[in-house]
């Protein structure tokens, strides 16, 4: 059983990695060819290593991030080249070069992985035989940087598809949490409520992944001629992500409140029914990442729920512990309506007076 699961996971990773792998291979080939055939460098190792390092498999594929990484590496190469020219090559020179480059990289950025990357490039310069001129290897780095940026813009990694996958991951947990919350309220299942609480507390990385994927997709679409038609869809998904981010934060608070509330052993079928309606509307919202028409279906479902969020409607206006759940649902419904494209002011106008 474990072998089958591992095989499926491995195949999924391979398929998911195909776009970045193809992009890296093409970029490395172009960078090496330009340095070797055009610039005449006999061993343009850095043209390849800098390209691979700059592109990588990171989720953040924004052109700005690619450019910043490449620029930092090039500065590290220049500094290392000058240090080798001044101090020469040897054991103590290697230590001094690595020390200066690592400290300089940490001064420039907070990224520990970036500092290590600069250190590795510096070691290449310190250990490899000296080229014909001091500028050969920095020019290889510049070639790699330009190539990486062009490839990022002209051969994008299907960033919209990655964003949809991240959206699906968040919606899966969100919907599963609503479904479990409905059961906990209907059956007064404290154990189930505790399980939901653990689950929703782990949703922030899913939101962060979705945000990063969308930020990359939007940034690339501003430069890539092949993604111009997707700018509107990406903007709509960005609005959806922001609404779901806030709604997920509110869901954590609601689950904590329900976990505390149902410990009295009292069944509250009306709350279970409200969560059931929320679940149906959110299912429609999850489909909106593929088809925007589902936004209107989701909005209609949320409007039906939000109009019921008045403690007086259920005769619990004087029961603070129970009414607090309804009151906590109100800001979450506003966020979900905003995710469908409604303005915050219009969404708040739909709230019943309490």
**Percent helix among the residues?**
over 70%
Order of helices and strands: HHHHHHHHHHHHHH
Q: Sheet with the most strands?
A: none
**Ends distance:** 55 Å
Number of strands: 0
Structural description of this entry:
The chain is mainly alpha-helical and 354 residues long. It has two domains: 2-154, no CATH class; 159-349, Up-down Bundle (Methane Monooxygenase Hydroxylase, Chain G, domain 1). Helix content is 77%, strand content 0%. It has 14 helices and no strands. It has helices spanning 2-38, 45-55, 63-87, 91-108, 112-127, 136-154, 159-187, 190-200, 204-221, 231-261, 269-287, 294-306, 320-339, 344-349.
Topology:
Blueprint (H helix, E strand, L loop, with lengths): L1 H37 L6 H11 L7 H25 L3 H18 L3 H16 L8 H19 L4 H29 L2 H11 L3 H18 L9 H31 L7 H19 L6 H13 L13 H20 L4 H6 L5
Helix pairs in contact: 1-2, 1-6, 2-3, 2-6, 3-4, 3-5, 3-6, 4-5, 7-8, 7-9, 7-10, 7-11, 8-10, 9-10, 10-13, 11-12, 12-13
Short description:
With 354 residues, this protein is mainly α. It has helices at 2-38, 45-55, 63-87, 91-108, 112-127, 136-154, 159-187, 190-200, 204-221, 231-261, 269-287, 294-306, 320-339, 344-349. The chain folds into two domains: 2-154, no CATH class; 159-349, Methane Monooxygenase Hydroxylase, Chain G, domain 1 (Up-down Bundle).
């Amino acid at each position: 059983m474990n072998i089958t699961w591992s095989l499926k996971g491995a195949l999924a990773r391979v398929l998911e990695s195909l776009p970045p792998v193809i992009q890296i291979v093409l970029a490395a080939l172009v960078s090496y060819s330009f340095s070797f055939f055009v610039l005449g460098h006999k061993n343009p190792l850095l043209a390849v290593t800098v390209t691979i390092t700059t592109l990588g498999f990171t989720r953040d594929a924004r052109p700005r991030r690619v450019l910043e990484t490449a620029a930092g590496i090039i500065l590290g190469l220049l500094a290392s080249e000058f240090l080798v020219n001044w101090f020469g090559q040897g054991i103590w020179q290697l230590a001094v070069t690595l020390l200066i480059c690592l400290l300089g990289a940490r001064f420039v950025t907070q990224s520990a992985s970036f500092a290590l990357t600069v250190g590795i490039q510096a070691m290449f310069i310190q250990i490899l035989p000296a080229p014909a001129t001091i500028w050969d290897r920095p020019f290889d780095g510049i070639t790699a940087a330009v190539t990486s940026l062009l490839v990022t813009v002209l051969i994008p990694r299907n960033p919209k598809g990655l964003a949809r996958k991240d959206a699906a991951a968040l919606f899966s947990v969100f919907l599963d949490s609503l479904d479990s919350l409905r059961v906990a309220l209907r059956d007064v299942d404290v154990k189930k409520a505790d399980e939901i609480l653990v689950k929703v507390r782990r949703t922030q990385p899913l939101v962060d992944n979705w945000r990063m994927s969308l930020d990359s997709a939007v940034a690339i679409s501003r430069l890539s001629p092949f993604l111009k038609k997707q700018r509107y869809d990406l903007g709509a998904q960005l609005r959806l992500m922001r609404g779901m981010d806030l709604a997920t934060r509110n869901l954590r608070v609601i689950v904590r409140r329900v976990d505390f509330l149902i410990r009295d052993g009292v069944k509250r079928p009306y709350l279970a029914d409200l969560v059931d309606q929320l679940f149906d509307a959110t299912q429609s919202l999850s489909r909106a990442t593929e088809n925007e028409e589902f936004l209107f279906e989701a909005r209609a479902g949320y409007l039906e729920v939000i109009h019921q969020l008045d403690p007086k409607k259920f005769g619990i206006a004087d029961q603070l512990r129970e009414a607090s759940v309804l009151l906590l649902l109100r800001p979450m419904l506003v966020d979900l309506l905003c995710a469908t494209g409604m303005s915050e002011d219009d969404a708040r106008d739909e709230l019943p007076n309490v």
